[in-house]
Amino acid sequence: MTTPQTLLSNLAKPAQAFSKAEQKVADAILANPELTTRSSIARLAQSAEVSEPTVNRFCKRLGATGFPDFKLKLALSLASGARFINSAVAEDDTAPTFTPKIFNASIHALEKTRDSIDPKLIHHVIDEVVASKRIYFFGQGNSGPVAQDAEFKFFRFNTPVSAHQDPLMQRMLAAASKPGDLLFIISYTGRTIGLVETARLARDSLATVISITAPASPLARASDLAITLDVGEDTDEYLPMTSRLAQLTLLDVIATGVTLRQGQAHLPHLARIKASLASTRFDSVEQDV
Amino acid sequence: MTTPQTLLSNLAKPAQAFSKAEQKVADAILANPELTTRSSIARLAQSAEVSEPTVNRFCKRLGATGFPDFKLKLALSLASGARFINSAVAEDDTAPTFTPKIFNASIHALEKTRDSIDPKLIHHVIDEVVASKRIYFFGQGNSGPVAQDAEFKFFRFNTPVSAHQDPLMQRMLAAASKPGDLLFIISYTGRTIGLVETARLARDSLATVISITAPASPLARASDLAITLDVGEDTDEYLPMTSRLAQLTLLDVIATGVTLRQGQAHLPHLARIKASLASTRFDSVEQDV
DNA sequence: ACAATAATGTAATAAAAATACATTTATAAG
DNA sequence: CTTATAAATGTATTTTTATTACATTATTGT
What we know:
By secondary structure, chain A is α/β, with parallel strands linked by helices.
């Protein structure tokens, strides 16, 4: 299933439309990929008979942040079927080829998010959750289901929680919010007008607003705390939104943090929830919730 | 000599007899190995609170020729799957430690799903979607948001689609279904009584039922096609459900397959959807949907 | 043939890693 | 309990490596 050497085969593909100098770089890498993972940019430039910046540009064109990053990805691609580069879905893809690509794109988004999250910020968010009297999750469009998922997750705590996708309802609840209320606003772009206004309304009411959104977006600016996710999308029209997976996992992290913070205190509450579900199952050992 | 796999476990081994400063380095690397593979020696030295030469000596002691070589070997060791040794969340975990653990658990779930999916089955599912006159997504509990997410995704196609979380609604729609109708039923356990009965009702009405659920479960048996996900036990009480991420990505795969199958035919439909959203944004370049 | 643009290279700068060497800390002998 | 000795660690410097800014050279379309 896992096609090994995806980066490599990508290099070899003639359809790649490399420029002359870049083709030389590709050839030089292909001639001895293992060596390349341990080369300096100068050595590779020399063996490809091009200048060093050309090598650097070549790396960036292939999605790396620079030469060292490229070497790392190349090494991984050699070791275990590449999952970083060339996950673009093409029109001639079939189920066996696009299935791993899409999973890889999702995995990549999570890896990127994992490495960009600031634990201190998470800590602050958990503080706010623990301190709150009531929690709302707001999302529209694709982020609506994320908000709802969060509701299920946070339902385990004793704090009242609800998720809302309807813009009017969101607006009304924001306007009616009070100090001690905590609003999570989830938006990939952070540019949905209604949600930004909702954030402002809530803050006017002295509620706390935490957004999960794009860096430097209007929503991020309008929030008390903003967890910004830059998953980097839109490059491939066939690749679906991976940001919601990052949002979901991020909310998992926050919920887990709250659970750990609360310690054993809430366990009886949880037991009641589990018991209430038992009768809806064929077999009560496992559960969806 | 240092084979890739042994590097990580070597670090974790207490028997290693590291000196004080070297132990700090080992701890810092273990705290976030993925990040280390992309760090500079200065960054790692700082996070371990030691000097840079100490890090360098540490690397050499472990058989690398220097820091870059060490990073390379570390990356390879991570790629070979040694990274999940430490992913159980413990009560004394704090934000910096449990955050990567949870992301890793999610990533692992996707990797496992990626490698267990049968592309032929996906192909059949896409056939059914393309052939269908109407599509329903049913889920309860945690799978409810997944169904809703799928609705957003499949809305792009011309086939009428709706998601339902209410058991009564699901039952009624299943009973009223007709040949040409396609029901996706999403359930992690495949043991929710209501959903299994719904599947039977729908098949009695000659609709097609595709489930995304657990292997060998009652729901899987009650379906025409079952995509079974075995993400693994939730052995750790603090680790959240990762199955829904696998479900979501799987539905991404199916939707992408349908898109590719339909080719350009549906593009005008998509353009209209995009246009309808433009006025709700501060900046119409990006979008949530 | 000539602008406009893209591609590539040169030279300078910044960043990273390794080295030489100084200082501190631990150890063991008297 | 010193004090010589060795081991460990850190500081400052040099060397290597990577990136950037900018100049030059090709390429393309009119």
